[in-house]
């Protein structure tokens, strides 16, 4: 179909038979690949020449002619705000946590003796 369209294009302005062939090819391409030809029609409305519009649309003919978008996503319940979740999961403020841990470390560090580590075994 594209070969016939391309062959008829140069003569479409001067030969009525070529113009009819061009229009029939475009009509058939709309049946076979409405996705690509929809883009072609939009480009033509925007003012592109037939050659430029078809050149831009040509890669679209390799895609699915009638793409389906599928079903809409399910509606999910809205989550509570992040701040509320943080308050529920972590009731303590960072100041309390750092203050408590800092005091425990200094107290434990002052009373605990350093642990001895065993010397590594050497094979001679």
TrEMBL record:
Name of this protein = Uncharacterized protein
Task: Give the region (Disordered) as residue ranges.
Answer: 56-79
Note the superkingdom of the native organism: Bacteria
